[in-house]
Amino acid sequence: METFKLLIVILLSSVLVDNYVLSRFLGICPFLGVSKKLDQATGMGVAVTVVMLIATAVTWPIQYLVLNPLKLGYLQNIAFILVIATLVQILEVILKKFSPSLYKGLGVYLPLITTNCAVLGVTINNIIDGYNFLESMVSSLGCGIGFLFAMVLFSGLRSRIDDSHIPTPFRGLAVTLIAASFISLAFMGFGGIVENIFA
Amino acid sequence: MKTNLKNLSVFICICAVITLLLATTNFITAPIIEKNQNASANKALLEVMPDGTGFEKADVADKALPATVTEVYKETSGKGYVIKLKTAGYGTDMIIMCGVNAEGVVTGAVCLSSNETLGKEKEYGVNFKDKDAADVEGVDIIAGATKTTEAYKNAVKDALNTAIIMGGGSVDIRTEEEILADNLSEAFPDGEKKFEKLFLVEDIEGFDAIYTATNGKGYVFVKGEQFIGVKDDGTVVTKDVADASAVTAAVATIKATVLEDINITKYADLEATVLSAKKTATGNFVIEAKGAGYGIKGGDEYHPASNEYIIVRVSINAQGKIIDCLTVSQAETKGLGDQCADPKFYGQFAGKNETNYTEIDAISGATLTTNGYTQAIERAYAAVKILKGGAQ
Amino acid sequence: MNKKSSLSVLLNGIIKENPVLVLILGTCPTLATTTTVTGAFGMGLAALAVLVCSNVFISLLRKIIPETMRIPCYIVIIAGFVTIVKMIVQAYMPALYETLGVYLDLITVNCIILGRAEMFANRNPVVASALDGIGMGLGFTLALTAMATVREVLGAGSFAGIAIPFMENFKIEFFTKAPGGLLVYGLLIALIYIITKGAAPVKTSFSCEGCPHAATCTIETCQKKGAEN
Hints:
The complex is a heterotrimer. By secondary structure, chain A is an all-alpha fold. Chain A has nine helices and no strands. Chain A has one domain (9-194). The longest helix of chain A has 31 residues, at 133-163. Chain B has three domains: 48-166, no CATH class; 176-256, no CATH class; 260-391. In chain B, 33% of the residues lie in helices and 22% in strands. Chain B has a five-stranded antiparallel beta sheet. Chain B has a five-stranded antiparallel beta sheet with strand order 10-11-12-13-14. A four-stranded antiparallel beta sheet of chain B has the order 6-7-8-9, with helices on both faces. In chain B, a hairpin with a 2-residue loop joins strand 8 and strand 9. Chains in contact: A-B, A-C, B-C.
């Protein structure tokens, strides 16, 4: 029961309170770049979640079964980024071959994910926070959902911005960032809720 | 295929070169990083042991340490120990870190976390610096924060004992109450470890205190360091007692004492000040009187919102000497006035008489409580006078 | 290569193609590490070191690295230098290491570095690549420090950890929090537009220039860009 509670807290806090995009700024590039349309935002969000889960499932054992016993902790960064890059490539090939329709939906976002700092960030953070395998997976799932959630919300907001009259200096990225600021402000409201859910 | 192989070998070469670079950097920086990490982990420890060079957590699994000790760190070059303790303060738990060097001198004490009301614990630790066990005993408790500072002082004492135990020595880590309980059950095993102090109504000279087993099987007489167990029929259980007959006689006196209730409703003057009065055949009185302490809205007895009196039970012999005194109930301020329920306070009255019963050490920071207490005794004396007059 | 052009390479990164304010690259560290001036400056210098090292290394190997394997090679090289910088910071500047935390690791995926490798270092000689690295790194550091100054002065009432009299009594903590970072970034971009009167090539949206995947990317607009390349 205690473990279950802990898992729920990890999940909720990584979706809401410590939302990777809005409070830790990880993966902010695709957040600003690919959130113009709802379908793109959803596709990117799902793709990121899938890659995060697979990457964690692979990097966690690498850290604890290979790097730590061999005292090669300093290769963490290289190993993780290579694993992520390779995974993304493999995933792309597999999707292309076996499910062209899914590839059309998700595959196009995959190359962008290699340099998405949210994916590398979540794998490294799981190690830093000392999560066990199950907790790491839950935390990755939470981060992915949080990313998807933020993307979908923001794409809705952006479609409204496109229709409004905005002073010239603010056109484009400036107003996008300011709008993101307000969404982030709204998410700050979740602070303190999760810890007290079971209290 | 050939180009692929060539490409792959280039890639592998690059990986190898980078790995080599990393390994070299790691070789140079790893010791420094480790030193840094130790330094930051030891920051709190260094605060209480500034001379320390390195610390490691000591294994305390097989050691009997005071209950307050949570962690023990050993200074790696043998300069002493840093002990982390958790003790109950006035409000919540206090976490105290205390360093003790190899000579048994406190090198520093800090309170890491607390929620004490007065905040006195923040700088109180300074008082213990560079003091040994005997000097620590002499550190003053701060008036107005007695509970907090007393708990702090006890924690420091526990830390000193822990250092001795960790160094291979042995220390009595029992509390005063535990020592007393152990002594009592040792003197009279039939008492099944449950004793309470006997409230004396007859003068029994030559003993410091008398305890009775709650199962009624006997008594324990305390005389100096000696604990004498006695059965209910007067048989002395403890061996090598010099004056066994005195003990037997004392038991006979105790058992022979019959208290006769006095109906105080007959005395209009007493109804407001005294709860009950009893009398022995030898002319001693046992009075339960009430005094207006701080629990009575600042000592004002006639205040409409009055609530709780200090109830004092006192036994006075025919010559007007106080044989024994006990606090029955009180509702004084927690941590201050409630010390009137402490045997250390009310024990002072035993042996005093009508002229000098006010010459006691007052409770610091609780003048109204002390005044209320002496008021109760004053009323007891007044009651004895009236009752004696009525009896004639 | 004459003196003037090497100077222009250097200045290019600082002003005309400032990676943060004009190219809008490396947004994560820009937002995350600019709560304090010290952190931002440290982050800038760490990125500068990685940028210069990887640019030089890649430029040196530009004839050896096979075209098809270049992205993995770049990633390995960058990740390697990031780890080296991280270890050095951890050993000699533990306080800064504490401040930057995981963001130091994330320099690996900072688009600026991979972007410069792809767009400059792999087709220019060593000296120019080094200068480009220094210029871009300085531009990154300057932009980060400027943004951190705004956020720390308003949000914490201090500059580089030193309290400013008067200001410290009127802290607006909002600025040190996540939304404050996004707001200040947005306002700064607008300010650059106003100062340069729209002359600077301010990006109106995210496009694929600077994106290392432009050539391989399958998103429609990027495909077009890739084709043009």
